Structures are given as structure tokens and as C-alpha cells.
């Protein structure tokens, strides 16, 4: 009975937040302050015709290449009639071309299932989360001008909503964020292997998106960066190693720090001779790390090691659990719900500040990523900063 009363109270508070969301920010943003731009969102279905994607009864050869569904968050301008998207709206996507229907359905089911695993483990709370308003507006006009492009790479076999608050936040501050899916060689073989071949395949997806979007008139071709969580951190690093257009990389507890990955990272030639751009390296100190590659780099490196973070606190996970008022048994012994929320918000602030400094010469951003200033007091409690 007490649990039912607690759940009812939580639901009541969340619905109250939802009703006032249009007047302020999304309840999922907590204390984040939006930038001057409205957040635009669109899903685009690309086809890389240089690569094979095996056909099946449900996916014929008509696509003539590898499909890549990207989610794009961008600085836009809302119309009078524009309404914010719900969280579910960003998951349940409907391609105009029916040839993408089965492919899109596979990604959509993964998004729903994994959101359940990495969010509140309650069907009632999940329904509330799905109805919550986000900060994004569907397919509103992009703001005039040219903006930095950030290619975001997901964790291994992760869902394409893993860091949606970060993406919306960056878009509101003038960044275009293109989110690459994580999918194997076919719909029948949809999981990616944790090895060099798996990373190389995702790199090719990211490269195709990079080549597609850097040609857009609204992209500032001199300000292109890459971000990745977990396995995606390795993809982001490889993208910078092989493409001089990529000027900075943010790794969110990325594979480049994982002792298990060092052999195949080395086989892909990710090292000081190839990775020659500034690096923001966020990671948890609660797991074993091998920082050999990072510490060998000759470019500016900003390391922030969080003392008790979960691997999934570098995405929405810790933030959503806190918003829902629930503790997850997988991490409750390591850190509090409040700490989890602060780690996620810190990750968001550090990522933005890093690119603000390198793309907009924002000295406040530079101080922030070095852990300097009064606004970093909480982060200095949670993490150790190193800059060289």
C-alpha cells in the first residue's frame, strides 16, 4: 500500500511538471538553462550505396545499400502553432518511404526495450516518461546561418535516445547534432561485435553521415566535432584520426580507456601519431581503466575522472532515474540518486563547454573544463580534473 501511495505521489508530481513544461523547460532538463535557439528535430533515412546490407523477406534489395537512420537536433525557429514533442515522439518515427519500414521498426523496438532497461523499471513510470514533453519541435525551420556540426556515436548496441537531453541542450546553444544508430551487418545480425571489425563498421556509418552533412549550407565546415559514449567514444576517436575536418573529440567513458579494448584500438591505429585534435576524456574511476593512449597524446587533453559514476551516468540514465524519484539497484551502493543526476548534468555542461571553447573561443568554457571557478565546486567534489 505504501508503495502504491508513493507511486501515486510521483505520478502526480510528474504530471504537474508536464503541465507547466511549456512555460519553462522540459522536466527532464531539471536546472539546465536553454540557449537562445528553439530545438529542432528530424529523423532522416540515408542509404550508403557503397556498402552492402543483406536482403531478407522483410527487407528487399530495393534499398540498394546500407540504410542509416540519423536523428538530427538543430537550432531552429518554432512556428506559432509548434508544439513540443513528447519523449515517445522521438522514438516512434515513421519514414515516408515504406522501404525503410522494417528497418525503422527494428530500431524503434530496440529504443523502447533498452529505454526500459536503462530507465525506471516500472511500466507506469515508463508511460509517464514517454508522455513527458521534451524541448524539441518536429521539423521546424532551421535558423539562418551556419553552425558547428557534432557527430554523435552511441554505445555498443545502445538505443538512439541514450543522450537526448545532451543533444537538445547542444542544439539550443547553436550546435547541429547528428546521432548515428548502432546496428550490425543486417537485420538478422543486428548486434555489433566488441572488436575492431565492429568499430570499423560503425565508423563507416559515422563517416557517411559526416560526408553527407558537412555539405549542407547550414554547417560551418571549419567547426566539426565528434562525440561518443562507451564504444562510440572509439568511433569518435577514429573519425578524428582519419578525417582532418574533425577538429575536436569528446569521449564519454569511451572505449579508448577500456583495458579490454586496447589491442583492437591499437590495431586501428588510434594513437598519438593519428589523434591530433583536442580531447575531452570523461570517465568513471569506479572501473579499471587504461589511460595509456590518452596520456600519450601530444594535443590538449582534458581528463575528468568521476569517483563513483556508473558507466551509464554519462547518458540520460542517472538523470531520468532522479527525475522519476527512483533508485536503481544496480548503482545504489555506489552513489546516490542525487550524485547520479549531478554526474549527468556535469557531463552535459562539460561537453558543451569543451566545444564552446574550441569552436567559439569561450574562455569561461575553458575554465569550466579545467575545473576552475565557483561554478565547478560540485564537479570538483564528484571528480578529479587533469589538464595538459
Automatic annotation (TrEMBL):
<protein>
    <recommendedName>
        <fullName>Alpha/beta hydrolase family protein</fullName>
    </recommendedName>
</protein>
<keyword id="KW-0378">Hydrolase</keyword>
<dbReference type="InterPro" id="IPR010520">
    <property type="entry name" value="FrsA-like"/>
</dbReference>
<keyword id="KW-0732">Signal</keyword>
<feature type="signal peptide">
    <location>
        <begin position="1"/>
        <end position="21"/>
    </location>
</feature>
<dbReference type="InterPro" id="IPR050261">
    <property type="entry name" value="FrsA_esterase"/>
</dbReference>
<dbReference type="InterPro" id="IPR029058">
    <property type="entry name" value="AB_hydrolase_fold"/>
</dbReference>
<dbReference type="GO" id="GO:0016787">
    <property type="term" value="F:hydrolase activity"/>
</dbReference>
<dbReference type="Pfam" id="PF06500">
    <property type="entry name" value="FrsA-like"/>
</dbReference>
Amino acid at each position: 500500500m505504501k508503495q502504491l501511495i508513493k507511486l501515486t505521489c510521483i505520478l502526480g508530481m510528474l504530471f504537474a511538471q508536464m503541465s507547466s513544461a511549456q512555460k519553462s523547460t522540459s522536466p527532464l532538463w531539471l536546472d539546465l538553462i536553454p540557449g537562445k535557439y528553439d530545438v529542432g528535430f528530424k529523423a532522416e533515412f540515408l542509404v550508403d550505396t557503397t556498402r552492402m546490407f543483406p536482403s531478407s523477406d522483410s527487407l528487399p534489395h530495393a534499398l540498394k545499400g546500407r540504410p542509416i537512420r540519423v536523428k538530427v537536433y538543430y537550432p531552429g525557429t518554432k512556428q506559432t502553432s509548434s508544439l513540443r514533442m513528447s519523449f515517445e515522439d522521438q522514438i516512434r518515427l515513421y519514414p515516408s518511404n515504406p522501404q525503410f519500414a522494417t528497418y525503422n521498426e527494428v530500431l524503434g523496438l530496440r529504443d523502447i526495450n533498452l529505454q526500459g532497461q536503462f530507465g525506471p523499471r516500472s511500466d507506469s513510470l515508463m508511460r509517464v516518461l514517454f508522455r513527458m514533453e521534451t524541448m524539441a519541435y518536429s521539423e521546424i525551420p532551421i535558423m539562418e546561418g551556419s553552425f558547428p556540426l557534432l557527430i554523435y556515436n552511441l554505445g555498443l548496441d545502445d538505443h538512439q535516445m541514450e543522450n537526448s537531453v545532451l543533444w537538445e541542450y547542444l542544439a539550443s546553444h547553436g550546435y547541429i547534432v547528428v546521432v548515428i544508430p548502432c546496428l550490425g551487418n543486417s537485420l538478422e545480425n543486428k548486434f555489433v561485435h566488441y572488436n575492431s571489425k565492429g568499430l570499423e563498421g560503425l565508423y563507416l556509418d559515422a563517416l557517411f553521415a559526416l560526408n553527407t552533412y558537412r555539405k549542407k549550407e547550414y554547417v560551418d565546415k571549419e567547426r566539426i566535432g565528434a562525440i561518443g559514449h562507451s564504444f562510440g567514444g572509439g568511433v569518435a576517436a577514429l573519425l578524428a584520426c582519419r578525417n582532418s575536418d574533425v577538429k575536436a573529440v569528446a569521449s564519454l567513458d569511451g572505449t579508448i580507456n577500456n583495458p579490454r579494448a586496447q589491442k583492437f584500438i591499437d590495431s586501428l591505429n588510434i594513437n598519438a601519431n593519428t589523434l591530433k585534435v583536442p580531447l575531452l576524456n570523461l570517465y568513471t574511476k569506479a572501473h579499471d581503466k587504461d589511460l595509456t593512449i590518452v596520456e600519450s597524446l601530444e594535443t590538449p587533453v582534458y581528463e575528468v575522472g568521476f569517483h563513483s559514476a556508473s558507466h551509464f551516468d554519462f547518458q540520460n540514465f542517472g538523470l531520468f532515474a532522479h527525475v522519476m524519484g527512483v533508485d536503481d539497484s544496480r548503482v545504489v551502493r555506489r552513489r546516490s540518486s542525487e550524485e547520479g543526476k549531478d554526474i549527468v548534468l556535469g557531463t552535459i555542461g562539460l561537453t558543451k563547454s569543451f566545444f564552446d571553447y574550441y569552436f567559439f573561443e569561450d574562455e569561461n568554457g575553458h575554465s569550466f573544463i579545467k575545473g576552475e571557478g565557483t561554478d565547478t565546486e560540485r564537479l570538483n567534489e564528484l571528480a578529479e580534473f587533469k589538464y595538459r
